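To assess whether ligand presence alters the predicted conformation, the chain was also submitted together with glutathione. Input:
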Amino acid sequence: MPHFGLFLKRALGMAALGLTLAVPGLAQAQQAPANTLDAVRARGQLICGVNTGLAGFAQPDSQGVWRGFDVDYCRAISAAIFGDPNKVRYVPTTAQVRFTALQSGEVDVLARNTTWTLSRDTALGLDFAATNFYDGQGFMVKTALGVKSAKELEGATICVQPGTTTEQNLSDWARANRIRFTPVVIERLEELVAAFVAGRCDAYTTDVSGLAATRSAQPKPDDYLILPEVISKEPLAVGVRQGDARFADIVRWTHYLLLSAEEFGITQANLDRMANDPRPEVQRMLGKNGELGKMLGLDNLWAVNVLKAVGNYGEVFDRSLKPIGIQRGPNALWTTTGGLQYSPPFR
Ligand SMILES: N[C@@H](CCC(=O)N[C@@H](CS)C(=O)NCC(=O)O)C(=O)O
């Protein structure tokens, strides 16, 4: 894979400059397994790449237990494979090291607000199993700044994380709108947010969900305003290594299971009762009829295990993202106006 070699060289070059987090194991030229499912089973654990701490998406609670929307995807995949959502090791990754972590085999899967783009899908040797959150890039300012629109950001300093689509979209947007700005580029999210809060930049730009998460984590969220402009499409998708279709299928259909369960009204609470639901698709989904689970290389009751662990997509969303004020919007089911979340049939 010549492209990946180049990428790796670049990433390692940046590491030498002290710009990336260490990727343990990479120095020993860790070999990514060709068959992730077998490797995960043999290890007895799924290694999930998450972000370094983003409210609502992935963050350890006061007991050190990882929680959030992305974390629930790790838990769901673990439940699909092991019948147990807790067989997961969480590896925090910055935006800049996440792809190397996946490619090198340091993590099995990336559930980490990662935008699905053509170059990541090809040159970086990744596959995106499913878009679990449709997002777009926005800007946040301090309310006291008095700015109401991104168009007023001429001459502003803007905080941005490197290794992100955010950085690229920002320069595209500024060029297209003839806005001059000074970027303040900081890799660690914590430091970046601290810089913004301390007034080192006028605006902070990232995915709107990330802005909402950061805003909600401030002592006085009302001191911060998310501007109305959304300047890009950010389909946040669960990433796996290219060339491992079996594992990609498991991740993809775990997401579809969460969607289909919501569509069919199956919840964590009514799951036992739903096992007797007469609708044929529900019977196939829950393993009462047919062998869909086995076709994925899993226990035929994988779906029951997943839904018991995390509930349906709406429940996953409401548990973590509703409390920080994120609306369903395009992440509503396709059966709702404007909803983009759509599962192929369980057949
Ligand atoms: N979706 C964009 C941005 C993803 C991203 O890394 N966003 C930041 C800001 S919300 C983040 O999650 N940082 C968490 C971290 O660095 O741990 C991408 O894939 O490039």
